[in-house]
């Protein structure tokens, strides 16, 4: 076992806020999203149910977004946005997160912009009969956090937050998200 330094939590929060957007519809906060490479936003399918939404960037700009793809079973949606100077999240290598890994989530719970929650990964794998994989983390998610990033201590995205299950957060693993995005862009 190697000794690791304590992550710079404030720096991590600032970095993740820069790649996390608010997703709204007609002014109502629906959830969060992650600025993905190539000018897209990844969020949850349960966050966007109409063909269009608005994403609000950390700098306050609001951009129209069009739903390019939705997968209700995986709870993922891909949004196309038009804008310049968009940041993009740094992705971890798929399936590198482990039980015991430090993770952080940023979202907009109850309209609180850029709220951070941190914890550790408790389990990875299916928890339901459908066999879908989940990253289960000991951190708080609240309404408005759905669709936001789950990141490692270096700020690399390891999953997309989906929902709370009791006191645990459930996130879609990056390997599932990456397959979804790749398929949606074809």
Question: Main attributes?
Answer:
six-stranded antiparallel beta barrel, Thrombin, subunit H, 186 residues, mainly beta, 2 domains
Describe this structure in words.
- Helix content is 12%, strand content 44%.
- It has 186 residues and is mainly β.
- It folds into two domains: 13-88, Beta Barrel (Thrombin, subunit H); 102-183, Trypsin-like serine proteases (Thrombin, subunit H, Beta Barrel), CATH 2.40.10.
- The strands form two sheets. A six-stranded antiparallel beta barrel has the order 1-2-3-6-5-4. Strands 7-8-9-12-11-10 form a six-stranded antiparallel barrel.
- The longest helix is centred in the last third of the chain and has 12 residues, at 174-185.
- It is globular, with a radius of gyration of 15 Å.
- The protein starts with 8 loop residues before the first helix and ends with a helix.
- The mean pLDDT is 89.
* Count of discrete alpha- or pi-helical segments spanning 4 or more residues: 2
The CATH class label of the largest domain is: Mainly Beta
Order of helices and strands: HEEEEEEEEEEEEH
Shape type? globular
In terms of DSSP E residues, the strand content is 35-45%
Poorly predicted regions are: none
Tally of domains: 2
Number of strands: 12
What's the pLDDT, averaged over the residues?
89
The biggest sheet amounts to:
6 strands, antiparallel, barrel
Kindly identify the CATH topology of the largest domain.
Thrombin, subunit H
- Proportion of helical residues: 10-25%
Regarding quaternary structure, what we see is single chain
| Rg on CA atoms, Å | 15 Å
N-to-C CA distance: 42 Å
The CATH architecture category of the largest domain equals Beta Barrel
Strand order of the largest sheet: 1-2-3-6-5-4
Tell me the name of the CATH homologous superfamily of the largest domain. Trypsin-like serine proteases
Secondary-structure-derived class: mainly beta
């Amino acid at each position: 076992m190697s000794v690791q330094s304590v992550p710079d939590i404030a720096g991590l929060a600032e970095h993740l806020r820069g790649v996390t957007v608010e997703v709204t519809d007609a002014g109502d906060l629906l959830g969060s999203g992650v600025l993905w490479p190539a000018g897209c936003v990844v969020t949850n399918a349960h966050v966007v149910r109409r063909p269009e939404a608005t994403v609000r960037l950390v700098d306050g700009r609001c951009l129209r977004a069009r739903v390019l793809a939705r997968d209700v079973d995986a709870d993922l949606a891909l949004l196309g946005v038009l804008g310049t100077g968009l940041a993009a999240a740094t992705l971890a290598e798929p399936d590198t997160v482990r039980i015991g890994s430090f993770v952080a989530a940023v979202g907009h719970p109850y309209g609180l912009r850029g709220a951070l929650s941190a914890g550790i990964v408790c389990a990875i794998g299916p928890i339901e009969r459908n066999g879908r994989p989940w990253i289960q983390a000991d951190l708080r998610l609240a309404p408005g956090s759905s669709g936001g990033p789950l990141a490692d201590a270096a700020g690399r995205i390891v999953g997309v937050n989906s929902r709370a299950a009791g006191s645990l957060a459930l996130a879609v693993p990056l390997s599932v998200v990456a397959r979804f995005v790749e398929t949606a862009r074809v």
